[in-house]
Design goal:
The complex is a heterodimer. Chain A is of the alpha+beta class. In chain A, 42% of the residues lie in helices and 19% in strands. A three-stranded antiparallel beta sheet of chain A has the order 1-2-3, covered by helices on one side. In chain A, helix 2 crosses helix 3 and helix 3 runs parallel beside helix 6. The longest helix of chain A is centred in the C-terminal third of the chain and has 18 residues. Chain A is globular, with a radius of gyration of 14 Å. The N and C termini of chain A lie far apart (42 Å). By secondary structure, chain B is an alpha/beta fold. Chain B is built from 16 helices and 17 strands. A seven-stranded mixed beta sheet of chain B has the order 4-10-9-8-7-5-6, sandwiched between helices. A four-stranded antiparallel beta sheet of chain B has the order 13-14-17-16, with helices on one face. The longest helix of chain B has 21 residues. Classes of the chains: A alpha+beta, B alpha/beta. At the A-B interface, loops of A face helix 13 of B.
């Protein structure tokens, strides 16, 4: 497994052009219910605070603030692109799939049909120390989603 | 810092270390001879944990093969032999740091040693309140109105136990700030250390900055006000000659695994009169004189602080590690690592977008360097280096407040030991010079 399989160009791009980054710059759409979750990885200090707005059973908006490695930042960015517009149930299902791939130590392949750009994180599964980096924003999204649809 | 000369009997070779000698030393370390990700391993993480020479591994194995038994109990042959090597090991380690035999307490690691001191002090507070213990114990009680002083560059292990001691006793925790170059602000220290100061706890050498703190100046400040001095010697004892008596500290702690020994063993040094006055931290077997159903009387140090079956094989292995360091010459190791440390810093300073934390090149530092890479997170730097077989530490290195002071959340740290060559440093520098391009920063 080479470093280039871990750091695919799509990950490097998203780590710099961070879609959804900037909580203060975005207001949740009127009439939506929101959930917000802060997640911290005490090992490396990576942090993500993610807010998710839901209306009519659909994810209207994802925005977040974060500090961390390229994997964690790109993962939050890709999640934003993927999750916005999905139904609550769809996003829950995609988060489950993403987690299954990441925790499989490389045994479960990512289906781009389901995971879109997030399939690029398949390589992370082979680096046990980095799985949490890729998961941090998705864990935050799951928590926020539960709050928003409670 | 006072240097201690190596005894004449151990002066094997007083010329400076060089790469040729390091290559011979490396032959004693099996773990270093392997490929990582298709590349020869370059191990630059000894600040976190060091590797073991064969003599240390064999000492532990030999103990289990020939002498394994519980110490300080049983009259049988193995028990006697085990006790003998265990206590010989204590003497070896005591001699290594200029401590008395009774002043050398085994712990699991430095963290446990610091917790032991802090809990013994709050136990002193409880005992004093109930009129238990000697008059010397009363002077050790900590309470409201007392200050505990640490520094901004401490490892969490030398910070949190003091936060908790302050919480338990009502004392106030204060800290000495650091300069932008990672030195302690002695002007501020002189203001902070005052009549109320009960404990002054600080690191001898910073695990992030590489700074070597002026122990004797700080001890002098503490002496003026009658404060106890606790020294975190984790990054100094393995790498430079230390004499605790010359340093004048009241307590010092260090870990075996950072000085060629296995994990699970560390040392607490304490002045005998203090150890004998302090109540124990952990209680149980092996540390008592008389026990009734109501109460117990305790042995003096060191047994007073060694409840339960001890880490015997690890202590024996630590003595073997001390012998290895002594035979090589700790002063020579110190000089070699100073060279490697300067080479690291100088090299890093010459790479675009790298910010080294701590003293700039040309200023004294131990053989490590932590740095920030502009536009690339430390985790990514570490991953990039690992792909080239280079092992470094990334993250906050258990020093979050220090990183916050530096305006960073994480850094990458390369730390050397006696088995690193200048080629290791150069391979590392060469790899670091490619990091920003790879991540398109």
């Amino acid at each position: 497994m080479s470093l280039d399989q871990l750091y695919q160009q799509i990950i490097l791009d998203h780590s710099k052009q961070r879609h959804g980054s900037g909580l203060a710059d975005t207001a949740a759409p009127a009439g939506s219910s929101t959930g917000q979750s802060h997640q911290l990885n005490p090992v490396c200090g990576d942090e993500v605070t993610l807010r998710l707005a839901v209306a009519d059973g659909t994810v209207q908006q994802i925005s977040w603030d974060g500090a961390g490695c390229s994997i964690s930042m790109a993962s939050a960015s890709v999640l934003t692109d993927l999750g916005e517009g999905m139904s609550v149930a769809e996003l829950h299902s995609v988060i489950d799939t993403f987690r299954e791939v990441l925790r499989s130590r490389g045994k479960v392949h990512a289906d781009p049909e389901i995971l879109g750009d997030a399939a690029a994180f398949e390589g992370v599964a082979r680096y046990a120390a980095r799985v949490k980096c890729a998961m941090i924003s998705w864990v935050a999204a799951e928590d926020a989603l539960n709050q928003a649809s409670a | 810092m006072t240097a201690v000369s190596t005894p004449a009997s151990l002066q094997r070779s007083m010329n400076a270390m060089d790469n040729a000698e390091v290559l011979r030393i490396r032959n004693d370390f099996p773990v270093l001879h392997q490929q990582v990700n298709g590349q020869a391993l370059v191990y630059l993480d000894s600040g976190a944990t060091s590797q073991n020479p064969l003599s240390v591994i064999e000492a532990e194995q030999e103990f289990y093969e020939q002498r394994n038994a519980a110490v300080h109990r049983g009259a049988h042959h193995l028990a006697v032999e085990a006790t003998e090597v265990f206590e010989d090991a204590r003497q070896t380690v005591a001699d290594f740091i200029g401590a008395g035999y009774e002043e050398t307490v085994w712990t699991s690691n430095a963290t446990e040693g610091l917790n032991l001191i802090s809990y013994a002090l709050s136990n002193a507070t409880l005992w004093a309140a109930q009129g238990r213990g000697s008059s010397a114990l009363k002077d050790l009680a900590v309470g409201p109105g007392d200050d505990i002083v640490v520094t901004e560059m401490e490892h969490h292990a030398n910070l949190i136990p003091w936060q908790e001691l302050a919480f338990r006793t009502g004392a106030t925790l204060k800290y000495i700030p650091v300069t932008d170059h990672g030195a302690l602000r002695l002007d501020a220290a002189a203001e902070i250390v005052g009549e109320r100061t009960k404990v002054l706890a600080f690191t001898h050498a910073s695990n992030v900055l590489g700074t070597i703190n002026p122990v004797q100046e700080l001890v002098a400040m503490a002496r003026l006000v009658g404060a106890l001095v606790v020294l975190d010697a984790c990054q100094s004892v393995p790498h430079m000659p230390i004499n605790v008596k010359d340093l004048g500290v009241d307590f010092a702690v260090f870990s075996g695994h950072k000085m060629l020994a296995p994990t699970g063993v560390g040392v607490l040094y304490g002045k005998q009169e203090l150890l004998d006055a302090l109540p124990p931290f952990l209680t149980g077997g092996s540390m008592i004189t008389t026990v009734t159903m109501e109460r117990a009387e305790y042995l003096p140090a060191p047994q007073r602080f060694e409840a339960g079956t001890q880490r015997i094989s690890q202590a024996v292995a630590l003595a073997a590690a001390v012998n290895y360091l002594t035979e090589t010459g700790v002063d020579r190791i110190h000089a070699w690592e100073a060279t490697l440390g300067q080479r690291l810093v100088k090299g890093l300073e010459s790479i675009d977008g790298i910010r080294v934390v701590g003293p700039p090149s040309g200023t004294e530092r131990i053989g490590l360097a932590a740095f920030d890479v502009d536009g690339v997170h430390a985790h990514d730097v570490g991953q990039f280096l690992d792909a080239r077989g280079i092992a470094v530490r990334v993250g906050h290195h258990c020093a979050q407040p220090l990183h916050r002071r530096l305006g960073l959340t994480a850094t990458t740290r390369a730390s050397t030991y006696l088995y690193n060559t200048t080629d290791d440093v150069d391979a590392f520098l060469d790899a670091v010079s490619g990091v920003r391009a790879y991540f398109q920063a």
